[in-house]
Design a protein that fits this description.
Length: 268
């Protein structure tokens, strides 16, 4: 299916079983459109928050067994009812998107991880639910993978996020490495920038490795999807480690060569 971009989300790809593609697509459309409300266009914060509140109201309608009004929610309601999907993860996502409207700085890594708990982890939990897997260990693995992928995306998008007046790097760690907002604005990688970035990269890598066993817990296409996702995160981390300043001049992305290597490693 044609898609836009929504980081950390396996968007109904050919690797997924056919029976899951429609519900995954419905969940994706919800997440993408809600994220766009928080991020895109020139609407003032009050209007963005009102639109996100309307999304909450649509979830309430679904919970009451009513027909949703917004067309985004028609397929989502079908998926929720057809697969008995809990509504909590959707509400967590909306909470994170609303936070993006209101909160622009994060005092500590703990605050960043609280955001990841609501912005990223629900995606993995929704996928596990669709797979019919409720093993607490697998949920913990999934949370680690999703949080790591969110952290990796923050590192990729330091320059992009700054243009939106957002900094997801912990303020206390920036201060400890004497990295100022002016330095970020200027794309200045002198001083302790590399040391600060390497700390972020290593922490994200350890978190990704902590969740990696989930990739071998599933067989077939689902397991391959997970392994390729994990390998993609590792590939971006290698690029960030090799050049911690690339976020300002050559945002690290996955190339065709990367995908070929990842698919090969995922298969064998």
């Amino acid at each position: 299916m044609p898609v836009d971009h929504y980081e950390n989300f396996p968007v109904a790809s050919w690797l997924l079983p056919k029976r899951l593609r429609r519900p995954v697509e419905a969940i994706y459309r919800f997440a993408r459109s809600a994220d766009d409300i928080a991020d895109e266009g020139d609407a003032p914060p009050e209007a963005r928050l009102a639109q996100l509140a309307a999304y909450h109201a649509e979830l309430d309608r679904i919970e009451r067994g009513e027909t949703p009004i917004d067309p985004v929610f028609g397929p989502l309601a079908e998926a929720i009812r057809g697969h008995a999907i809990p509504l909590g993860p959707f509400r967590d996502l909306l909470s994170a998107f609303a936070q993006d409207v209101e909160k622009k700085r994060y005092a500590s890594f703990g605050e960043v991880m609280d955001y990841c708990r609501r912005s990223a982890n629900p995606v993995g939990r929704l996928m596990l639910h669709l797979y019919g897997d409720h093993d607490p260990r697998h949920v913990a693995y999934s949370d680690a993978i999703c949080s790591s992928l969110q952290l990796i995306n923050f590192l990729q998008d330091i320059a992009i996020d700054y243009k939106k007046d957002r900094i997801y790097l912990p303020q206390d760690e920036l201060a400890a490495h004497h990295v100022s907002e002016t330095q970020i604005a200027q794309g200045d990688t002198r001083g302790l920038w590399h040391m600060m970035m390497n700390r972020q990269v290593e922490r994200a890598r350890k978190l990704l490795q902590a969740g990696a066993p989930l990739g071998r817990a599933f067989k077939g296409r689902i397991g391959l999807e997970l392994r390729v996702t994990i390998l993609g995160g590792e590939a971006i981390l290698r690029k960030l480690h090799a050049d911690p300043g690339c976020v300002f001049h050559n945002r690290p992305v996955l190339t065709k060569k990367d995908w070929i290597i990842m698919l090969g490693r995922g298969l064998f």
